Amino acid sequence: MTKDDQIIRMLKDIMSTLDSHTSILDDHTKKLDNHTNKLDSHTKKLDSHTKKLDDHTKKLDDHTKKLDDHSKKLDHHTLTLEEHGNMLSALRTGQEHLKAEIEGMRISNAKEFGKLNERMDTVSDHIELLRDESWEQKTDIHRIKKTMGMR
Q: Is residue 62 part of a domain?
């Protein structure tokens, strides 16, 4: 075998190896293309999920804002209720004080009324005595006038 034959044989071997490698590389290219397609599909899905997550994030932000507004309103209502509770306590205290005063006035009025009734009874007795005396004096005056002939 000559050198040319050896070179040709070596070249054929190299060509065979190159063809084998080309076939392997073609398989790898197909696999890479398949992986690329799968990655593209996953990218689309991830983009879709990202969009959905962004939408959810916006909704959560809106809900958070609404909850913050509700919390502020509840805090305001709590303060208002505390103020009303304090006012009601003050009104109750004032009402109890007024009730005690009124009760004291009732007792005082009842005592005074009792004293006035006693005085009225006394005055009534005196008036009756005066009426009787007046009547007696009138009859005496009438008798004296008659006796004196003035009538």
A: yes
**Is 18 a member of any domain?**
no
Residues 50, 52: Cα–Cα separation, whole Å: 5
3-state secondary structure of 2: coil
Amino acid code (one letter) for 151: R
Amino acid of residue 107: I
CA–CA dist 48, 25 (Å, integer): 34
C-alpha 87: how far from chain center: 18
With beta carbons less than 8 A apart as the criterion, state whether 6 and 13 touch: no
Where in the sequence is the domain holding 47, given as residue range(s)?
A: 30-121
pLDDT per position as a tens digit, 28-82: 999 999 999 999 999 999 999 999 999 999 999 999 999 999 999 999 999 999 9
